[in-house]
Design brief:
The chain is α+β, with helices and mostly antiparallel strands and 662 residues long. Helices cover 54% and strands 11% of the residues. The chain has 17 helices and 20 strands. The strands form seven sheets. Strands 1, 2, 3, 9, 10 and 11 form a six-stranded antiparallel beta sheet that branches. A four-stranded antiparallel beta sheet has the order 6-7-5-8, with helices on one face. A two-stranded parallel sheet has the order 4-20.
Length: 662
Amino acid sequence: MLRPEQMRRLLIAAPKGEIDAIIKELYRHNVYHIEDFVPESESPEWLSIGHPLPGAGDAATALIDVRAIEKVCGIEPDSVGVGEKIPASKVRDMIQEDLPTIQKTVKDLVAERSDLESSQKKHEQRLRELEPFAAFPMDLESYRGYSWFTIFTGHISRDVSIDVPHEKYFSDQVTGNMIVVVVPNEHRDETERTLFNAGFQAVSVPEGNGTPAENLKVSAEEVRLAGEGISRINGEIAKIRDRYTDFLVACDELLTADVERAEAPLRFATTEETFITEGWVPDDHAESIQAALKRAAGGRIYIEELEIEDDTKVPVEYDNLAFATPTQVLIDIYSRPRYSEVDPTLMVAIVFPIFFGLILGDVGYGAILLVLSLALRKFFTGDEGRMLLKVLSYAGVSSIIFGVLYSEIFGSVLKVPWITGWIEVPALFFNRHLNIGTATGHAPQISELMILAIWIGILHVTLGRIIGMVNARKLHRGKHATQAMIANAGWIATMWGILLLIWAFYALPMMPDLTGLPVVVMGLNAAAVLGIVVLLAGVLGVAQENALELVEVPTIISHVLSYTRLVAVGLSSVAIAMVVNYIAIGMIIGPQLEAITPFGVIAIIMGILVLFIGHALNTALGLLGGGLHSIRLHYVEFFTKFYKGGGKKYNPFGMKSKFMEE
């Protein structure tokens, strides 16, 4: 649970004649993580990268064709629901018989649609060109072919006066205004200056004959016909998608497997007669895969278990309890653990929902998040999306539990039905209800909550340093391991030394009161002396590994105080909820209920909208704040004490079939 899956490193060597059988067996078991062979300068000359198996090119070509069809039809295999699996033999027959026909049909439809889209764009562009001239009675050919006259056409900011002989048309019914001016050539320069001083921007006259209105009608009709044709083709493609989705995703899966198997030798080292591959297998599958390979090769195979020399090269596969598995997605966002270090997934799976519940802590908001996480499952078919939704459901349940402890539901006091009517449930944990609007008489325990958050920070940071000591022993050797362990112990001692000093001088609620201990020396009581000794020992422990680390000592206080966000962010959510309730119910709905009027009905509806929108926004803020701050405390305050990360993902050679069966 606290360590990744244990791996074994295997070397496999066999004659080339057995390569096909061995590759199929490795792929079928889906547990062997291949280490790609990369020739190096010191590699023997007789050792080289292998060649693809026969049929690799044909399978790759067919796969490209299938994926092209999937792209056109908008099919995403990861989003397709799992139904009845199609036998592989049937899929292969359909690839030979049906795929060419489907491919030709789709190719023809795409080509036709492309032509129609080009025509549509061309005529839409012509519509834009013709539109400015539609307000003028001149035919398009009337704007061209003059030797003695110059015609200016374009947009202008305002109508202008032309002081030379001319003919002018102006329209303000066109976006940007439009002007047409015809002048003799000898007055062209003067007219051009006048126009440009008025902000004239020339517009080219479209090609063609006839009036702009007639041309607009023709182009509009072409655009309409092209649109209808595109819609018809899209409908036909949708029919192909509906009819052949299961077949296409099964083809994709089968051909992907064929290509991966056929190209596997490219990851092996080969000689003239043999091939060699190294890889990783989970410890609990090592014996079964070796036995299976020997059967497949008829005993003509050599398998050796190699010693693990560098744990940074070992692929990492999580090994967690079922309820902690979804939290792996949060760890991967930060970094997958290294093979030899402690896997924090289980701890995050437990603590993250608790932090989230401490922040949000409302029965209503928690119920919304829980329902939302369950409702969105049908829209998230990928593993990562479903894992995030599972984490969200944990957070929702935690929020409901803490909502009961806080006695909160949408910012109000939680009430339950009883024999005498609805009764308020007292806060079983700490009271967060504020005195806002008509909600008075509460005694919010903010100080106690802050102290609780600080205690959580102290314990969480201490746990991180303890795990850091364990990791130091795993990740380092000899002197370096000892120094790292002492340094982590030093950080713990430094923090607790500071705490002892604080407790020796100040009596704080919910914390040990050591102010009454007898004075020992120089006006310092026993707790203060012990605190100084522990603090100095901790500083020396940190300095013995790296003296520069001492500049980070102030972060001890800042990291512990950072946990007060568990209270501060939660109180802001409570305040927003109570303000929304006060505005919607206390100020809008409540007064109208005293005497119902038509205006009062409208006001009540408005109040309900304010209530709904306000709590919807607060739910979103609670999700964002609760999620970000809870995971931030892990990433920054917790992980930095022990977690290295950087592990390589375990990627076994093979596939878990979803749509077809061998």
